[in-house]
């Protein structure tokens, strides 16, 4: 793969991840205030922590997708893995408007549990082609599982 094509691919993956992040942030203007106003479990992280964590995770998600695509030599050889990758990005983008915008905590919990399942499949499919690409998704998977637990606790505390 040429250096130019590889760089263009990196830009595409960065753009996809930025778009997913932007959907969530545009749909919800004051997530920090909403979060702070909720009844939270004692183990809930402070609102300020989410921005730095997601910045690192989104970078890892973009690099992971790019590594897999580059290693496969394009989309066609890794169509299934990249399809699940795209699916998890869509689910990731959909959670924030459900949770913070619509304040549908139960529905958001179902959605994030689906995200966890799709993300697990994505990691497994990535691991078959590129272990580093799969490994870069593991912190995201861990954080998403934690977020699902937090979502469940918030739903129970705020019914």
UniProtKB/TrEMBL annotation:
Similarity annotation: Belongs to the TspO/BZRP family.
One Pfam family linked to the record: TspO_MBR
Organism listed in the record: Halopolyspora algeriensis
UniProt KW keywords: Membrane, Transmembrane, Transmembrane helix
Listed GO biological process terms: tetrapyrrole metabolic process
The keyword Transmembrane helix is annotated on this UniProt entry: yes
Residue ranges of the TM segments: 47-68, 80-100, 106-127, 134-157
GO cellular component: membrane
Membrane topology type: Multi-pass membrane protein
InterPro entries attached to this UniProt entry: TspO/MBR-related_sf, TspO_MBR
Name this polypeptide is given: TspO/MBR related protein
Subcellular location: Membrane
Taxonomy of the source species: Bacteria, Bacillati, Actinomycetota, Actinomycetes, Actinomycetes incertae sedis
Main subcellular localisation: membrane
């Amino acid at each position: 793969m040429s250096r130019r094509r590889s760089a263009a691919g990196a830009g595409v993956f960065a753009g996809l991840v930025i778009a997913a992040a932007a959907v969530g942030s545009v749909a919800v203007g004051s997530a920090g205030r909403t979060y702070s106003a909720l009844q939270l479990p004692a183990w809930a992280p402070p609102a300020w922590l989410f921005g730095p964590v997601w910045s690192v995770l989104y970078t890892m998600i973009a690099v992971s997708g790019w590594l897999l695509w580059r290693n496969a030599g394009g989309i066609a050889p890794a169509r299934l893995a990249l399809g699940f990758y795209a699916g998890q990005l869509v689910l990731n983008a959909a959670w924030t408007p459900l949770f913070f915008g619509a304040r549908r905590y139960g529905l958001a919990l179902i959605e994030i549990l689906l995200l966890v399942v799709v993300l697990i499949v994505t990691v497994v499919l990535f691991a078959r082609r590129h272990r580093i690409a799969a490994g870069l998704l593991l912190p995201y998977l861990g954080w998403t599982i934690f977020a699902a637990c937090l979502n469940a606790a918030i739903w129970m505390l705020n019914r």
